[in-house]
Amino acid sequence: TVAEMGNPSPLTSDLSTAQTAGTVLQYLTGSGADQQTVNITVGSGHVYVSFMTMLAPSPDWFTGFQDLSLCRGGNWVDAITITVQPWDAGTDCGTTFTSANCAGGTTNGSSAVPVYEITPTTTTSAGVFVNNNAVLPMATITFTRRTYNVVSETPGMRPVACAGGQRYNMQVQSLWTGARHPADYPSNAHFSPIVVASHNTTYQMWAPGSPASVGVQTVAEMGNSSSLTSDLSTAQTAGTVLQYLTGSGADQQTVNITVGSGHVYVSFMTMLAPSPDWFTGFQDLSLCRGGNWVDAITITVQPWD
Questions:
Q1: Does the model's pTM come out above 0.90?
Q2: I need a labelling partner for 162 at 20 to 30 A (CA). Which of 126, 133, 229, 261 fits?
Q3: Is 113 helix (H, G, I), strand (E, B) or coil?
């Protein structure tokens, strides 16, 4: 029903049953947008991810992947980008994108066949998806390891749709102490002045597996935010950043940040000083969940190099 009609209901029902049985950790559906972001959780016993979406309109063609492991060599990958090809579900024998429904999975109307990849040799008589004797990828999929752990989340008691602007108090509480992190703990350990920004999906302050910008480098190495705030000002002018601000290096502090319907993400960083280039923070934390602004969310952040 996904491949033929774009309807995920029977598949999500199967996934719900599998979740109850313990073979699926989490499942979700997104939109049909050309570009979109979702959050998926994996675990030590559930390291694989599978995905599919109909190529509409079509008889039963889809794209996706199955059994992608995000654990490599015993460690979670920071980031991975893959491409996905077109596939035939083998349940309809149509040969063009707008063919009438046809029983069977082959062009001669025989019974359904196993799922197969559409290649120059397996394509239909109409040659769908073939260009210069090759079938090019249908999409790129990028996984980026989330840079924070959610401790608690409070959905809106009176749901407020993610439209217009919403102002949040952001409280930072340091947990970096000699008792918690005794190895080589410096006597003058402190945070540098924090940098926070609200932004859309286009802007990226920093990301696991990606090179640090000069702005991120100067924060991480010297605690100096001037280069990064200059980048943020440019991004704000371009419309990818809604608001940015700097705070202090205090162990506990509160700042106010505004998000909006087109800028639902927040990113943050501060130097772990003194250090060569170590910092803590998070990136791409969405304050819009299920179409509504969250009332409150508490996360923990890890050290990064």
A1: no
A2: 229
A3: coil
Query: What's the confidence (pLDDT) of residue 107?
Result: 44
pLDDT averaged over every residue in the chain = 91
Q: Which of 205, 199, 194, 207 is nearest to 246 (CA)?
A: 194
- d(CA 220, CA 7) in angstroms, rounded, equals 47
164 in helix, strand or coil?
A: coil
- Per the CB < 8 A criterion, the answer to whether 185 and 178 are in contact is yes
Tokens of 157: 């008691």
pLDDT of 205 higher than 90: yes
pLDDT for res 124: 87
Helix (H) or strand (E) segment spanning residue 230 = helix 226-238
Burial label, 172 (beta-carbon count in 10 A; 0-12, 13-18, 19+): buried
Beta strands 165-173 and 288-289 are unpaired
Residue 5: both structure tokens together: 């009609």
Residue 30 has pLDDT above 60, yes or no: yes
Cβ–Cβ < 8 Å for 28, 20: no
Structure tokens at 169: 């108090």
Can you name the residues that pair with 233 across neighbouring β-strands?
none
